[in-house]
Specification:
The complex is a heterodimer of chains A (482) and B (121). With 482 residues, chain A is α+β, with helices and mostly antiparallel strands. Chain A has 12 helices and 7 strands. Chain B has a single domain, classed as Response regulator (Rossmann fold, 3-Layer(aba) Sandwich). Helices cover 46% and strands 21% of the residues of chain B. In chain B, strand 1, helix 1 and strand 2 form a beta-alpha-beta unit. The chains are: A alpha+beta (482), B alpha/beta (121).
């Protein structure tokens, strides 16, 4: 469900709740009003009945005929009240009670009529008086009972609606908190996934957002990030290729020189061979020719090396000798070293474990770091390549160090040097070399770190997992997703 | 007249070897070195007529060799050899008073006639 729909639904539910509360309250107040109105009616009826009974007493005590008239008026008034407000009264006290009220009134009226017909001196008046008194008392009792009942009912309605409203609000608040919590916690979880991926991408690690993609706006953002990631990865590959081509330019000069030596050797051997041919023994002639063959082999290797470096290749992991790769890389930059007047030192630990690597990529990392090192040094500097494996120091990784005696990296830049497009070389550098190298080492499940001191030099530490036979399959499958 | 003495400094083994074979046939005394330091050491012990040195070597720059020879024994003729056929290095080599400049691949006959010419002067 889309977030906008969820939010709308939440708001709609809130509005429905408010309407429900309003309808309920309206109904309750209406009922309360009816009850209160009835209490008023009952009060006035009660007052009428009281007057009737007072007049009744006057009649029997003082034999006042006027009092009978008053009783009749009060009775008439009571009838008119009951008739006029019949609906209200029935609603308040129910049909049965209403019928009882009317019966009591009728009885009182009949009793009154009987009293009227007799003379005050009649001896049977006492018994008649008794009947009317009894009916009057019942009427008063009834009205008092009604008032009491209605007051109680008003109280109970008020407290019930208080309770209902409180419960309802508590439920609404609880529901709001629970649903908000669920809504926001899921949203924040997804936002955190986006954040993690964005951070990884900024470090040059192009991983997609894994796991289920929600079907909402965040999901669309996630899909967009994933396709961006895909696109970045493609471009990144292109950049690596471009970067390689640019290093190729630097390398070509070196390679030309590399080729110059064996070509010169072949040429010289051939010239000398022709010159001294007559004085050579057969063995010597063969020796000359073998020298030529050896030099052509040397040329072949240089060319192959260059091709291996420049050609985009499928991932090709194999157990490799890191020392050989370091030496090859050094050979590729020999010309640069010479031009920049940089001395090189190689301290490679022999019988070091093999590493499972894509040789081309690892070599491009070495060449890149060495090239940076050379550019950072002034003539007379020293480049040192080291390799070692020490069970005590790190039982899983082979450690490679590339150290220069260059100007060093200021500490404020250290944390940025692996960021794409970060360069301290101004317009000279693309700022991609180290970020690409970082990505390559990460893809090998390795680690690349740097230590630097301004004015002293910089050392790059590369750790690559030492190759153990039983890990071959794992290593290959895990590294499939470049 | 004693045979002229030639020193060849080149980190490519074959260069020294072939020049030795070829120049010895012409009656020269030839000594070859793969590294500059022992060569300079040798030069301080004995005078050579001609030094043929590579411009670009692993341990020391051929230009440095040239400077030191010209400083310590100005009479010794120096021929620079390089695969590095760039204008800048040639100009620098001449400024440092190299007596000749030879690109690789070396044409041995030409080198021989240059040597002869330098010694004849």
């Amino acid at each position: 469900m889309k977030l906008v729909h969820k939010i709308t639904l939440g708001n709609a539910l809130g509005i429905v709740c408010i309407i429900l509360v309003a309808v309920f309250s309206y109904h309750e107040f209406d009922l309360l009003l009816a009850k209160l109105r009835f209490v008023e009616i009952a009060d006035s009826l009660n007052a009428s009945f009281l007057k009737m009974r007072l007049s009744e007493k006057n009649y029997f005590l003082y034999k006042d005929r006027e009092a009978l008239k008053e009783i009749k008026e009060q009775l008439k008034e009571s009838y008119s009240v009951i008739r006029g407000l019949q609906a209200n009264i029935i609603r308040a006290i129910g049909k049965d009670n209403f019928r009882e009220l009317k019966r009591d009134l009728n009885e009182y009226e009949k009793a009154l009529e009987l009293v009227e017909k007799f003379d005050l001196k009649d001896r049977s008046l006492e018994s008649r008086a008794k009947a009317i008194r009894e009916a009057g008392r019942r009427l008063r009792l009834f009205s008092e009972r009604m008032i009491r009942i209605e007051r109680e009912s008003v109280n109970s309605i008020i407290s019930a609606s208080k309770r209902t409203l409180l419960t309802f609000f508590a439920l609404v608040i609880l529901a709001a908190i629970t649903s908000s919590y669920m809504f926001f916690s899921r949203m924040f979880r997804n936002l955190r996934r986006i954040e993690r991926t964005a951070n990884a991408i900024s470090r040059g690690n192009f991983v997609k957002i894994e796991g289920p993609i929600p079907n909402n706006e965040l999901g669309s953002a996630m899909s967009a990030i994933n396709s961006m990631c895909e696109e970045l990865k493609t471009r990144h590959e292109l950049l690596i290729q471009a970067k390689k081509l640019s290093s190729l330019g630097i390398l070509t000069a070196g390679v030309a020189h590399e080729l110059g030596n064996p070509l010169n050797n072949i040429s010289m051997v051939a010239q000398t061979f022709i010159e001294v041919y007559d004085s050579l023994s057969d063995e010597e002639k063969i020796e000359y020719m073998e020298t030529i063959l050896k030099e052509t082999q040397r040329i072949k290797e240089i060319v192959q090396n260059l091709l291996d470096f420049s050609r985009p290749k499928k991932r090709d992991f194999r157990a490799s000798d890191i020392n050989r790769l370091l030496r090859q890389s050094l050979r590729l930059v020999r010309n640069m070293l010479h031009v920049s007047k940089i001395k090189s030192r190689v301290e490679l630990q022999e019988d070091i474990p093999l590493v499972m690597v894509d040789e081309n990529k690892i070599q491009s990392v070495f060449v890149n770091i060495i090239t940076n090192a050379i550019q950072a040094m002034s003539p007379g500097g020293t480049l040192t390549l080291r390799s070692r494996f020490d069970e005590q120091e790190d039982p899983d990784n082979v450690i490679i160090e590339i150290e220069d005696t260059g100007k060093g990296i200021p500490s404020e830049f250290i944390s940025n040097i692996f960021d794409p497009f970060f360069s301290t070389k101004g317009t000279e550098g693309t700022g991609l070399g180290l970020s690409i190298s970082y990505g390559i080492i990460k893809n090998h499940r390795g680690q690349i770190d740097v230590k630097s001191e301004v004015g002293v030099g910089t050392t790059f530490f590369i750790r690559l997992p030492a190759y153990k036979k039983e890990e071959v399959r794992d290593g290959k499958s895990e590294n499939n997703g470049d | 007249m004693a045979s002229p003495k030639i020193m060849v400094i080149d980190d490519e083994n074959i260069v020294g070897k072939m020049l030795k074979v070829s120049f010895q046939r012409e009656g020269y005394t030839v000594e070859t070195f793969l590294h500059a330091e022992p060569a300079l050491q040798r030069l301080s012990e004995e005078k050579f007529d001609i030094v043929i040195t590579d411009l670009k070597m692993k341990d020391i720059d051929g230009m440095e060799v040239l400077k030191r020879i010209k400083k310590e024994s100005p009479d010794t003729k120096v021929i620079m050899i390089t695969a590095f056929a760039s204008m800048d290095t040639s100009i620098e080599a001449f400024r440092e008073k190299a007596d000749d400049f030879f690109p690789k691949p070396i044409k041995i006959d030409e080198l021989k006639s240059r040597v002869k010419k330098l010694l004849g002067d």
